[in-house]
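Input set for joint prediction.
Command: fold jointly, output tokens.
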Amino acid sequence: MTRLAIAINMHRCIGCQTCSNACKMENNVPMGMLWTRTIAENCDVTDGAVGEFPNLTRTYLPMACQHCENPACQKVCPTGATYKDDMGRVEIDYDKCIGCRMCMAACPYNVRVFNWNDPNRDPDFNYGDKDVPVRSKGVMEKCTLCKERTDRGEEPMCVVCCPTKARIYGDLDDPNSEISQIKRQRSVRILLEERGTKPQVFYFE
Amino acid sequence: MKNGSPRGFTRRSFLKGAGVGAAALGLAGAGTMLSADGWLSPAEATAEPSEHVAYLCHQFHCLSGCNLKCTVRDGRIVKIEPNDACREEDQRICLRGIAEVQHVYATDRLQTPLKRVGERGEGRFESITWDEAIKTVADNLKACQEKYGETGVFIRKSTEASVANGIEWLNMLLRAESGGNWGLDRGSTNGLVPGVGLMPHLYKRPMTEWPQAKTILMVGHNLCESGMTFSKYMFAAQEAGAKVIVVDPRFSVTAQKADQWIPITPGTDPALMLGVVAEIVSNGWYDTDFMTANTSFPFLVDRETGKVFSDETAPLQQVDKKTGALVDVKDPVQKKVVYPPYVYDSATGAKALYNADGVSPTLEGEWTIDGKQVVTEFTLLKEWIAKEGYSAEWAAAETGIDADVIRTLADEYANNGPAYIDFGLGGPDKYYNADVLGHAMGIATALTGNYGKPGAGLGFFGGIEPYPAANVVPWKIPDEFVPGDTGVAMYEFPDMGASCPVHAALTFGDCFTLEAANANKFLEWVKTLDFFAICDIYHSSVVDYADIVLPACTKFECDEAIHHLRESMGYVSLATKAIDPLFDSKPDLQIERMIAAEWGRDIYMPKSYSEYAHHLLDGASGNVEGISVEKILANQGVWRIGGQDQAVPPSQVYGTPTTKFEVYYQNLVDQGHAFPVYERAVESYPDNPKRAQYPFQFMQGKTRFRIHAYYSASNWFREYMDPSVNISPADAKRLGIRTNDDVRVYNDRGEFVARALVNPSIMEGTLFMAETTYNHYYKKGFLQNVTNDARNQRCYEMKHGPQILYNDTLVNIEKA
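tokens >
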């Protein structure tokens, strides 16, 4: 079996939004939508902080589909459009998506984005990987773990472009992979673990 | 939802994050009526998409010089990623490279040559042909030359990224004034040049040695935002056990990532470093062996004159590397001959030349020699510290930092093993007292020996490495063509009245609002020019003031297959064309050729980027032996310069006349600054009466979303950032300001209106704003309207002259 995933080194994440923009470019993500975004946790402004000056903390949290082993989104999808593929990725069959947005409500991570209107692209042409399907109005989308790239044996674009090498991509089912070793050896943070969704994406310091 | 999810993380926090996005999107939404929709010519009707790949070296004003790979589909840029022909270590990119996918096509692109039809500043233009534009530029510049001489014309390529591509032809070919001292990023450097030699911010050892340090003290340097692609070395150092300490008034990204953040009252960094120096000295934490062998601390000074006691019978000489002859050594600032200093030789009990064979200099003491009362520089330093009263406690009162924190900082820096001081080129550099900071950092370094060896150093780190220059064949133009130099700095023009040498200007990019403060005053001066033309890619802040506007294309566009050849970060990089020039824009080489042709001087320039590349590479040798245009193209446009893999040997040879680390600046004796004497910021000092009206310290700094003003037009970035002022929660509450409110920021120089961000990262009494954004994105004015254009007269005695005091600025803020 294969369970592709990304591990994110929280200390190395500088909140620079390179992953978000790399993903947007690669996957032809329209304006107003992002498949991955980096938030400063519990802050309501960009690069805000928690606490009172000078006793402050700030935690950047890059957020995208967690590629759960037990995806809440898949369970509620009435058409089977959302599915778990044989590489361990959570994917969407855009042709089957009826735009009911049940998955959006079910996802505890709020990482699905919906084409409420015809996609508005700036620049107004399809950019990114030529193999990435174009999504239309009424269709849900989210991080595919760069399906088209990873199918070709390449790394996801966010991993390639991360300036601090905070992202480690690999197969959790391969015990010798770097990502498996990190998961075994490091103190690991799983988002909303109590929800039982079993995210494959995880965070470490 | 279940409470108590791990580490306070709830679904709400995602939603909150999403909410921020939505708020920002509202703003972007307002901008979409300006989107590039319909700007592009229809795609060519091809059945199958055709793709090709181009390579280029991206921006250099962020100091990253990323080598990029650009995929073009059906004539449009669709993907930008790191060039994978570079070593993995050198494969760099950040969001700014990626966002070019949109930014190249942004609405602010200048499309055709323009002629002003309204008043200067009004922004009313009509489009004209290139022929008319070039002729108008040439006619006006020639008229100015006739009336005022060649230096009546000002030509400069600005810090605005991208236009320049690194070469400036026209200021040479037209012998134009190019504005002398730059006034940027050399504040601390001014105070270090006499200590270690020219360009002291460029440390001579690579950042890859950071993991060998035990302590890294970052003074006002937000590496994790201004030098993103180099912050990996900071993390590697931390992972290897180094303690990173960040001094910054603001909880910057780098402060967040540091092992220790020391918040400091803005503009008081020199006091902190003087406190550190005082603690190192008073606790005996200095390295006497290093000081004796490698610094000027044992040099003798004449008490009466304050001058270094030297053998004035024969100037100091050294072997000229080119000719092999002995030549007089000149000091790096004033270019005067230097006489060899004396030390007190403990072996003979008499004076001896500092470089005499077998000399054994004494570090401390006072003697009467040749009828003069002489004392070592180290003894003087101790006296000076006592006289000025410098200590951790003194520094604490000035900086707002606990004395114990300062003492511990000095202890860790001096005693825990190899250490760096890494200073930013923004922040503390942009205050009146920046040279004092540079000098004080130098003395801390000279006391501890943290220089010239792996894991230790002093300088600006994050993009400027000691890369070897490639042995290419330089393009030469006849010696008669050199830029004019009236000795005046651009930032001085508005203060000169009728004596200003410049009467017409041609700038490539926005010099006038990026390289000067107090924009209202500066732009009033621009309005008085006989003629002003700008060549730019985007509608930058100063474009509305130009008589003629020439549209340049981006680095991605070219009218020939080969684009610019340059060296960057250890590579020779040959760019190839991604797309044709958009609209009616042209590459700057062609624009410069067209203008030079009006003087018949285009014959001295390459006809094409191809000719230029062939000239430099055909016949290249040494560390780029074997390179050729064909071979570099076959290697995805990059060629790593040889000789970079050997470890840099430790060195204690300094770029000073004596080749020692010099700590005592005798040319500043008359100004009382032979040692760094603390002085406060000139405007933002604590008890300035102006604070009654303008109680806020206004600071600007780098953001990941800009290179200076470049990327103002990026609609991808406008989803994250618009002109906004960060204010502390306490001040905001007192003034009734909430996030997203429009606020007016003002002082007696001017005003602007921007959006408020209430941010706990900000110290009370201060405001922070990201540098900078084109003026038409503000509701009113722009940031540069309030910045301080005062000059420190002392700096005229220094290598880089007075610096622009962007952060030494007081303002008030209110709800707009």
